What we know:
Elements: H1 2-21, H2 25-43, H3 48-51, H4 55-71, H5 76-85, H6 91-104, H7 108-125, H8 137-220, H9 228-255, H10 273-282, E1 287-292, H11 300-320, E2 326-332, E3 336-343, H12 357-368, E4 372-377, E5 383-390, H13 401-404, H14 409-416, H15 419-441, H16 450-455, H17 462-468, H18 479-483, E6 494-499, E7 510-518, E8 521-530
Parallel strand pairs: 1-2
Antiparallel strand pairs: 2-3, 3-5, 4-5, 6-7, 7-8
Amino acid sequence: MITAVRTRAEAALADTLARFRSLTPVRLVGDLLVMVGAILLDLWPGPWAETRVTGWLLIAYVATYLVLLPLRHVLPAVVLIGAAALPFGGPALMVLVSYTAGRRIESWVKAVATTTLTFIVVVLLWDWDQRPLDIEPVYGMLILITIFGVGVALPFLVGRYLAQREALVQAMRDREARMRGEHKMLSRQVRLRERSRIAQDMHDSLGHRLSLISVHAGALALDPSLGDKQREAIGVLRSAALTGMGELRSIIGVLRAEDGPDDDPATRTAESIDSLVSDARKAGVLVSLVRGGQAHPLPSRVSHAAYRVAQEGLTNAAKHAPGAAVQVTVKYEPDALVVEVRNNPSRNGSPVQEPGVGLIGLTERVRVAGGILHVGALPSGGFRIAAVLPYEETPLPDEPEDEQDETESPRGIRKWAGVGSIAGASLVLTTIIGGFTYLGAQPVTEVVSQENLDRIQEGQSEADVLALLPDGDEPLVADGERKSQASPEPPGARCVYHITDEQSYLAKGTRVVRFCFRDGKLVEKKIHVQRTGQ
């Protein structure tokens, strides 16, 4: 547990240092301008302008911003939740920290958890008693969701979408660079293959003719009818042919040098592993060879692949774990040949490195031979290369599925990258617009018409009166406001308040009618003017 926490802390520190190193003057100046702009917007003409903050309190506010805004790049989730908990945090601060959190948080689980906790903090700290308008709680909740969606959720989703698109572009660039490198390697392999063909043609044609010249010259030198000068000339001819053969071999060696000496399956077989181990032992490698099972005849491709597994394993052990003990195992199982090379951890304590290019080529060679290659670190800290090779000649396998689908993978990335962020933003907007649309369609603006008001008289039954009253109320006038300036209610009566449909600008308030019931009868119908701000 402690090791895992230490590893994460070291990774976070390394990431932070990398970000600081990547800072350029342009980015630094831009971030400073953003910080200054956020402070000014929240001070003036933002909400702080109404409270007229001055003195040490103003310095404390600015200092808090100067700490949170740079820290948002390092701890985006913590800063977002902390900014939501600030009682004096302005909208510019929330938009900035939300956008940065969306760009910096990579895990979607952490992103969902962060936004959820932020919403909970906002709801808990929302002052339900002192709302911007004295409105019904349902409208207050809708306004709260709207503020959170516009000030937090949408900037967060925009930042996350841009981060995903940036990661996609970088992945495409890396893929293009990798494809260019693979194209160069392929071109090099084609050139090497052509050189090998040229060398083989020279060996088959020119070498054969030089051999014939040498043989004929040797036979001609035995003719007793020739004189000394003729024999000397024939000797020079035979010597020239032999010299030409030697030079030909040298040229062929140069042409095939880049293919490596292991490209001749006839001289690199499973039986040659003994000499390979012997040469490694002479070079100072602590290597042992273990053979097991009944020897089985092997196809040339399989035998050569077995030799290459042992050779690559010894090479990697000598390169990455110098001084470590190495064990080479060649075991003939009933149905397959198993070749394994394992080495202990390096004596100098160097960590096991990732497989190199040689193992990539070895994987392809084993695949072509019809076998399976396993490469990986051992629990003890060493390294293991093992191959399972068939005894029978197998046809060349088809191209692996991952290589066949390589061209299709970027399409999938391009198709789905950022879709989650777009869907989230659409959900936020749909919730806001749908909520206001639904509430706007409700009969909240129904008022008591003058016709029904005239029909209602004291002494009528409560059921008849309620049948003439509307179901909805004026949304921007809460129940507490409708009755706060009314006269005292009759003792023992239950009263309801409604807005009348006839309003007057000259009244400088809202006309409210009160209906009071007692014992199932209407005992009072009274109208008063509810003035705002009193």
